Structures are given as structure tokens and as C-alpha cells.
Amino acid sequence: MSQTAWTWVRRVGAAVTLGVLVWRLGTGPFLNGVRAVDARALAAAAGIAVLTTVCCAWRWKIVARGLGIDLSLPAAVAAYYRSQFLNVTLPSGIVGDVHRGVSHGRDVRDVGRAVRAVVWERSAGQVVQVALTVAVLLALPSPVQSSMPLVAIAALVAASGLVIVARLRPGAGRSPWARARRAAARDIRDALLTRRAWFGIVLASALVVGGHTMTFLIAARTAGITASPSQMLPIALLVMMAMVLPNVGGWGPREGVTAWAFGAAGLGAQRALTTAVLYGIMVFVATLPGAAVLALAWFRRIRPPERSERSLRERTAHA
User: Which residues pair with 91 in a beta bridge?
Assistant: First the structure.
């Protein structure tokens, strides 16, 4: 399947998920989610987003340093806000990350390495997220608890395999696959598994997962869910995992998994959708600083030609 066809399949899948939910549950839960928005929830989401964005930017800086790329934390924070805003407003959910990698690559004159830094940074964050989710789902009751031992074993085997591949010295083959394996092993070893890198990456990723989970719990409470934190935490982490699936600006799988998880836990699919919609709005508002970063970058691009033209007119007049 071509890349274009696969992109459309992912978008259609996310749209179909939303369509089925509207067909089965109506538009009421979506409207209720909009009506439930209040200033306190939005302020809480924005405040948490500051912490999670700084942690993401710090993680990116650590990985980029491991690959030999300069990246200041303020620049990383601004670029990450911009990336998050693009991810929640454009289809596919990864446009912002692609833009972040390419833009940084142009700044450092090494697009390939910069894009790899973004890929490894996001991948490392998702590995930590999976590990935390599996641990919580093993410990607390959830709709999937009975399946978690097998999932935990599979995740442990996969993680061990990655570490072994990274530690082994690949052969000297010249095939594209051999070169790619050598490059991947080198990147993992230098950017993720060094002593000064892995602790910071794990800490930053854990704080990010905690922040996103807290935002979802606030959305659920604002939507009228009164279940205990021990009951809501596994559900929240399941929903966070669903958000890495193909989506349309963050929408689609998140709502589907939320409806399923709430229904399985006896909390009601209607309130599930209300919670998911409210969470989506909170996340969108929290990423609005990224729009300011985009506007500032656009303003800076159009200003230099104006100054240059004015300076040319002044020099001509003095001549």
C-alpha cells in the first residue's frame, strides 16, 4: 500500500469512528462536552501544559545532544508548542512533529539527523508511556486487566530486543537494511541509552504522562464523573494510549476508546463522549501558545524584506 493510500485509510478510519459514535449516541454528548467547558478547567489544562511542554522540550534536547545537534531549551519549548498546535489542528496528528524536525534540521543544516532526533524523542516517550500504562493496568482493576500479564511479557521482550540490538555491533554489510540497522543501533546507543540520557528521558516522559493523565481526570470530573481516582486512572491511561493511533487532529480513536472503557467500567458511554470532547477542547486551548509562535515566525519572515527595502531607499536618497 502506498504512503498516500495509507494516509487516507488512517484518516477515513478516524472519521468512521466518530461517525459511528454520533450514529449510536447522537450529538448530545458532543454538545454537552462543549457546554461543560469552564474557565477553571481551561486554566488547569493550560498550566499543566506548560509543565508537560517543557518536559517534552527537555527530552528532545537530551536526544538531540546525543545525536550531536545543538538545541537550546527556550527554542525547543517554542518549537514544541508550535508542534503541538499543528498536531491538534491538522489531520494525521504528526504534521507538527514533521515540521519541528525539518525546521530544526534547516537551522542546523542537517535535516536527516534532526528528523531522527524527533523520531527517537517521540519513540522514547511512547516506550515510557507503555511501560507506565502496563504497570498501572497490572496493579489496578480495569477492563483489560486479565490480558495485561501477556501484554507485559510481550512489552518486556520487545524492550529487551531493542536494547540487545542497540548494544550489538552490526555487521559490515552494505545493503540498505544493514546500513539502516547500523544507523538505528548507533542512534539508540548514543541518544537514548547513555547514562546521562536515559534517566532524563524517563523522568521527563513520566512527568508528561502524568500531566496528560491529570488533564483527562480534570476533564472527567468537570463532565460530572464522580468515580474514584483508582477507577479512573487505568481508563485515563488507556485513553492516552489510544491517542497515539492514527487520528484527525487528535479526534477519532480517543473518543472510541473512551466510550468503550467507560461503558466497560459501568460509567456510561454518554458521559465518556462528553469527557473526551471536553478533554479535546482543553488540549486545544492549552496548545494555543503554539499559534502565537507560528504568528511570530510569520511576522519575522515578512519584516526583513521591508527593512531592506527601506534601507535601500534611504541609501539611494542620500546618494
Answer: 248
Tens-place pLDDT, residues 76-106 = 999 999 999 998 888 767 889 999 999 999 9
- Nearest-angstrom CA–CA distance, 180 and 184: 6
In degrees, rounded to 5, the angle at the alpha carbon of residue 301 between the alpha carbons of residues 296 and 302 is: 100
Q: Residue 160 CB: number of other CB atoms within 10 A? A: 10
Q: How far apart are CA 158 and CA 56, in angstroms?
A: 24
Q: What are phi and psi of 251, to 5 degrees?
A: -100, 150
Phi/psi for 72 (5° steps) reads -80, 150
Q: Domain extents for the chain?
A: 35-298
Is the pTM higher than 0.85? The answer reads no
Helix (H, G, I), strand (E, B) or coil at 70: coil
Joined grid coordinates for residue 12: 477515513
CA distance 290 to 47: 14
Cα dihedral: 20, 23, 26, 29 (round 10): 0
Grid coordinates belonging to 203: 523522568
